[in-house]
Amino acid sequence: MVEVILDMPPGTLGFRITGRLTRQDYVDVLVPPLRKAVEAGERLRVLYAIGPGLHMEPAALWEDLKVDVELGIRHRDAWERVAVVTDLDWLWRAFELFSWMVPGEMRLFRESEFEQAKDWLAE
């Protein structure tokens, strides 16, 4: 499930991702604000708060790959900062290995550092 985080600093977007991540989560919640910002010429400063029990359905994985191409590669210069907030150790290891593929500057934060992640995005 993906929820928009409403109390984000101006000029930033935030998403809370928990439990089962579906294709519809991408189509209905995650992609529209990102696409809207890119089409408006805005720089993307995005926070992903990823909670326990994360499970991606195969269709969600396919949507993720499509988003990577559409917004990550085609609009690579739009991405300024990405903050990932999670206590999932396997995600920390994955992001540390593959962070070079993430457009823009990326930083990992623990759940206890949620407010610091928002502040970093807004700097």
Poorly predicted sequence stretches spanning 5 or more consecutive residues: none
Note the run of SSEs as H and E.
EEEHEEHEHEH
Write down the domain tally. 1
| CATH fold group | Rossmann fold
CATH class reads Alpha Beta
Count of beta strands:
7
| Rg estimate, integer Å | 13 Å
**Oligomeric category:** single chain
Please give the alpha-carbon distance between the first and last residues.
28 Å
Shape: globular
Which strand order do you get reading across the main beta sheet? 1-2-4-6-7
- Tell me the fraction of residues in β-strands, as a range: 25-35%
CATH second-level architecture: 3-Layer(aba) Sandwich
The total count of helices amounts to 4
Please give a structural write-up.
The protein has 123 residues and is an alpha/beta fold. The protein has one domain (2-122): Rossmann fold (3-Layer(aba) Sandwich), CATH 3.40.50. Helix content is 42%, strand content 26%. The strands form two sheets. It has a five-stranded mixed sheet, with helices on both faces. Strand 1 and strand 2 form a beta hairpin. Helix 1 (23-39) runs parallel beside helix 2 (58-73). The longest helix is centred in the first third of the chain and has 17 residues, at 23-39. The chain is globular and about 35 Å long. The chain starts with a strand and ends with a helix. 21% of the residues are buried.
At a glance:
This protein is α/β, with parallel strands linked by helices.
